[in-house]
Design a protein that fits this description.
This protein is of the alpha/beta class. It is built from 10 helices and 10 strands. Helix content is 37%, strand content 15%. The N and C termini lie far apart (37 Å). The protein binds zinc ion (ZN).
Amino acid sequence: MSTIMVYTPALTHTKRNHPENNGRISNLLPILDKFGVLDDIVQIVPQAATLAQLRRVHSATLIERIQQVSRHGGGLLDHGDTYATSDSYELARLAVGGSCGMVDVMMNGRAKNGIALVRPPGHHAESNRVSGFCLFNNVAAAARHAQAVHGVKRVMILDYDVHHGNGTQDIFYDDDSVLFISTHLFMPRFFYPGSGSLQEMGTGKGMGYTLNVPLVPDFGDEGYCRIFEELIYPKAAEFRPELILVSAGFDAHWRDPLAMAGLTLTGYARISRALVEMADAWCNGRILFVLEGGYEHEALTYGILNAIYALLGRDDIYDPIGAGSQPEQDMSQLLQALKRRHLLF
Ligand code: ZN
């Protein structure tokens, strides 16, 4: 069974001097080709999301607003730096539709796993609010699509972007059929978006199905590895997902200009492999990586390459950047607090 990829670089969704610009993944394919992975992947042609696919996760008001701003030539969508161009509505629909299409191919048994290299990113887009460079929530729409069309009962979304996935949390906060786990830097007022404390655990029947891991600066490979083994793995094992979706942001790399985390490319690769192994054990291999942030182009490119190596079941890791110079913070206390809240034993 094969690994699939959808690639929607959204070249006309861009803004000068903006970190989320069309240069992020525009040069990716020749590099993937050079490293010999492109021939091993089946590329899927993306279709624009239907209104029904968008409406599963967003209000009609939000969808119409983005459409209107695009129709009038583009502009800012919020008080921050979330922009649209005249093409953004259609391109954001393509990112959602491409992600949902990947779910179709996997759920129909024609592929094992895949990666959606899409722009604009999605995990900050809430049900009724765009934010953080995100228009429509690609990963949330893919999860709902899997449930609505393919009858998947339990979806796990792991968000390892360095920013909290506030949009995905908002959409599934009262839902016990989607386990949402986000690891992110957490410094209210200093670091975007400021949400994602360990007290935010869900509401109603969704209580316990949101797991936030709020990290201090300079968390690194070893700390993340402990969090994965001692907290995320047992939590996921208890939930037993039928499908794993990954909000794959590569801005937790130590060299990313927008953050101050300490992961290396090797650390990211280890996480990706562990997730693929979980999918192999519980989900018949079904795992879909959906691109989110990542603003240092070399770390982004090779982060993606290593994720593809993991999906293909290859042992290769390419890490030409290596480790940063900051020592890692100890996470034992945070880990204890999270285990007390989230694990039954
Ligand atoms: Zn991010």
